[in-house]
Structure formats: structure tokens, C-alpha cells
Amino acid sequence: MTAQEDATALKNKGNDAFKAQDWVTAVDFYTKAIELYDKEPSFYTNRAQAHIKMEMYGLAIADASKAIEIDPNNVKAGDISLHPLYNPHLFLDLTLVQAYYRRASANTAILHHREALRDWKVVIKKSPNDQIAKVRVAECDRIVKRDAFLKAIEVEDAPSASEGLDIDSMVVEANYDGVQLEKEMTVEFIEDMIQRFKDGKKIARKYVFQIILAVKNIVYAEPTMVEVDIEPDHTLTVCGDTHGQFFDLLEIFRLNGFPSATHGYLFNGDFVDRGSWSTEVALTLYAYKWLYPKSFFLNRGNHETDDMNRMYGFEGECRAKYNERVFKLFSESFSALPLATLIGKKFFVLHGGLFSDDAVSLDDIRKLDRHKQRQPGQSGLMMEMLWTDPQPNPGRGPSKRGVGMQFGPDVTKRFCESNGLEAIIRSHEVRMEGYEVEHDGRCITVFSAPHYCDSTGNKGAFINIGSSYKLAYTQFDAVPHPAVKPMAYAANGLMGLI
């Protein structure tokens, strides 16, 4: 057999792994195929699609660009009438789904809509009868115009969405049959609220406003880096991304115990988006924060931001289940959240990771005034704290997801040693076992959304820390949930775009 034939056989094995939703193995086979024969565009476009499934959008863009470099005409369309429901799972090798599609999809996922629009227009130019691409152009163009409009009307010191909101005068809906919420949060209210959510019900809009505003005030007063020590006979549980997977959140509490004054929790960002019970997750976490402000903690994640919420479902879910004002109040509360938590001066917990400059210290985080910058932007400390990822190689490198950067074990070692830390704990990425310890034990990733997006097959995990500051890991599996798909409330056309 020739090298090309051997490479094609490896690609076919990659396709089998892809169909089995084993993205890591698929990437491995596609990479081996490329190492044997690097002139075939489909090897790169297939690997790009696997990277998209793993949210490695920067790598997907690089692969798609390489495929275009090899064959700029790799964009022919098939008979659209044969494929009324476009699904990249099913069309790995059809010319309908090729490099321009992949690159446009990856750019859309990281909110680079103008770049995506350029690629969709190339598809239309080269293949004017491609009806799917025409729909994508219209969808992407609408998003670009929407973002431009929102930027044009943006006011730096806009009034709060709470202005004019007279909660005391609001009347609870007559048909509301749940526990009443007075001036303070109670265990009884939370237990009733959780049961209502499990039954597919909502809480009164007045109570939603009360919860969000109470927590906004609590977290606004907290420092940018919360510092907490664990007292004897107390436990702090660190959880990673929950991403609107409400029933899996309840599984954490079932396995590990519900929050209390002596059993604290730290949820390390990305409470919302993708999963279709994001309001339920956010309200549950907020209710516990209100009830136990000194033992229940919330760090901000990259999905507690307006642009991600518009694309990945939380804004649409707030509108569908409550109203637009609820989303705006959540948005204000998200921008008030702390960016990090320091546990016992030993573990630095933040959503993304470390920094592009070795000179950054814990004191810089302490001094950071997060209230001057509501959204993280494209650079700076806040963006890096929410977006960066570890890499196995020393030094720093470009981000595999296309936003931020990557940091190596030497970067982590220097940061921990100069700040007197044992390790950093971060989230932000799926880990198939629910957690991973890397960088010689100094970098720990914990992810708490098992079977992420109903497609990944990963475990979830959480970390228990007692007063001895030893880390105890617990893995758990996803539990059944009602038949609502992930991103059911996402921006129109998003699923097609990515």
C-alpha cells in the first residue's frame, strides 16, 4: 500500500471514532494520517470537526486554513435536497461540508462573526446553489448587524435594570402555589424551589428579582479575590462548570450533601449556557449564596458574560421563562462576581488560568478593580483569568480555542513558587474523567458537567477540601433529565452555524 492509502485507512478509523463520539481518539487517528500524508485536505477538515466538538476552535481554524491552502476550491456543494437536516456528524467526507464550513463554524463559536461571514460568502461565490450556505450567510449577517447595533447604543454608565423596579409593591402571581419568600432566604424556600424546578415549574418573577438583586449586592461587596480559610470540622467543595445541567447539579448535592454553614461550596464559573436549565442552576446557586454568604462562593466564568449568553442560550432562556429584565439583572450580577478565590493561602482557584506575564502576582489580583470593566474584552488580566488554558509544553503558546493563550508547567511552577501556593485549581475545559492533575501536580482542572451537552460522555467531578487542606476527588456520572436538548434557547441558527 502507498503512504496515501495507509493514511486513508487511518482517517477511516478516525471517522469510526468520531461517529462513536470519541473525539480524542478521532483526532489521534487524523493526526497520524496527516503525519503519513499531508497533502489531503479532508484529513484536516475532519480533524477540524473533531476539534470543534472538543471546543478547540483555534486548532479547528488552523486545520481548516491548512485544508484551504492545499485546495482553495475545497468547497463544492452536494445536492441540498438530499440533506434537508444538515448534520456534520453524518457528512464528514461529503464535499458539502468542507474547510470553509469548518472555519466559519469555529469562528462563529468564538464570536468572530465577521471572519465567519467572509467564509460563508466565499462558499456562496464558489457554489451559488448551496442553499445551506445562503441560510448561514443570512444568519451570520444578522448577528454582525445586531452586535454593531448593540455597540452603537452602548452607554458606559447605563442605568441599572433595577431602576424603577419596586419589588415591595410587586404582586406574586395568583396561581403561584409555592413557598413564599419574605425578606430573607430560607432553607424551606430553596427546597420548595428545587422541587418546583424538578417538576418543570418556575418561581414567581418577584422572587427571581429578589434573589438576583440580593446576591448582586453581596458579591459586589466581596473582593476581586475572595480569601477563605477552612475551619476544623468544616468542608469546602470546589465544583467546576455546571453549564445549565440542573439535574447533574442536584446529583452533586445528593452525593456530597447540600450546602450548609459548615459545608461550603465554591462554584468556579460557567453556571449557565449550553444546558437548557441555566436559569434553574443560576437561581439555585444564587439562593444558596444569599442563605450562606460566608460559606458559599461563586467565581465568574467566561460564560458569565453578555456576548456568550447571547449566543449560547442563557439570554434566550431568561426571555422564554421570565423576561428580558431578568437577563439584564443577571448580567449586572455576573459582572459583580469575584474573579478568583484563595483557599487557605494554598490553592488559587479561578475559572481559566494563568497569565501572559510572569510578573503578575496575587497582589495584582487583589488590587484589580473588576467593577470598572463589566465585560472581559479581548486582552488584560480579566480576560486571561477567564479564558486561558494549560499546555503540556514549557512556555506559552497560542490558544487552542482561539481566545486567550496557553501556559506551560514552567509558568505554573514559577507562579506557585513566587506566590507561596501549592497549586492552582481551574475549570473551563471538559476532562473525560471529570478532573485532571497536571504540571507536576500544580495545575488541577475540575469539570462538573458530566456527559457535557448530552454528547461528550465525560464524567463530572468535584473536590472536597477540609481543614487539613488535602484534596479529595469524587467522580460522578450524568443522571437522566427531561427531553429538552442542549442549547434549546440559543440564538436562532446557532446550532447550524457551529
Automatic annotation (TrEMBL):
Keywords: Hydrolase, Manganese, Metal-binding, Nucleus, Repeat, TPR repeat. The keyword Hydrolase applies. GO terms for molecular function: metal ion binding; protein serine/threonine phosphatase activity. It is found in: Nucleus. The keyword Methyltransferase does not apply. Its cofactor is Mn(2+); Mg(2+). The active site is at H303 (proton donor/acceptor). TPR repeats lie at residues 41-74. Residues 299-304 form the Serine/threonine specific protein phosphatases domain. InterPro entries: Calcineurin-like_PHP (IPR004843), Metallo-depent_PP-like (IPR029052), PP5_C (IPR041753), PPP_dom (IPR013235), PPP_phosphatase (IPR051134), Ser/Thr-sp_prot-phosphatase (IPR006186), TPR-like_helical_dom_sf (IPR011990), TPR_rpt (IPR019734). It catalyses: O-phospho-L-seryl-[protein] + H2O = L-seryl-[protein] + phosphate; O-phospho-L-threonyl-[protein] + H2O = L-threonyl-[protein] + phosphate. It is an enzyme of class 3 (hydrolase). GO terms for cellular component: nucleus. Its EC number is 3.1.3.16. It comes from the Eukaryota. Residues 372-402 are annotated as: Disordered. Belongs to the PPP phosphatase family. PP-5 (PP-T) subfamily. Protein phosphatase that specifically binds to and dephosphorylates the molecular chaperone Hsp90. Dephosphorylation positively regulates the Hsp90 chaperone machinery. This is Serine/threonine-protein phosphatase. It comes from Glonium stellatum.
